[in-house]
């Protein structure tokens, strides 16, 4: 997080991508949440990333419902990195 000090009031694309899973899970709070929200308002690419991730997580939840043992906890991070590699 230390490399985002240039604009403390708004997250970068990189930081937003890193935090989207927390954002979706409602785990971001206070200043961190505000920064991501500000970024999403002005960045179409990250809004599209957010909707891709939301769709992927929905699919994951349906899978999880039918197969309780899957997926591994790191799946969200894997999805985020896949989506980012596709940029
Ligand atoms: Zn962005």
Explained architecture:
- This protein is mostly helical and 87 residues long.
- It has helices at residues 13-25, 30-42, 44-66, 75-85.
- The protein starts with 12 loop residues before the first helix and ends with a helix.
- The mean pLDDT is 83.
- Bound molecules: zinc ion.
- Residues 13, 16, 39, 43, 45-46 line the site of zinc ion (ZN).
Helices and strands in order:
Elements (H helix, E strand, L loop, with lengths): L12 H13 L4 H13 L1 H23 L8 H11 L2
Helix pairs in contact: 1-2, 1-3, 1-4, 2-3, 3-4
Bound molecules: zinc ion.
The site of zinc ion has 6 residues, from helix 1 and helix 3.
Short structural description:
The protein has 87 residues and is mostly helical. 69% of the residues lie in helices and 0% in strands.
Features:
binds zinc ion, 4 helices
Helix content: 55-70%
The oligomerization state is: single chain
Major sheet attributes: none
- Total domains: 1
The rounded distance between the terminal residues' Cα atoms is 21 Å
| Low-confidence spans | none
Bound molecules: zinc ion
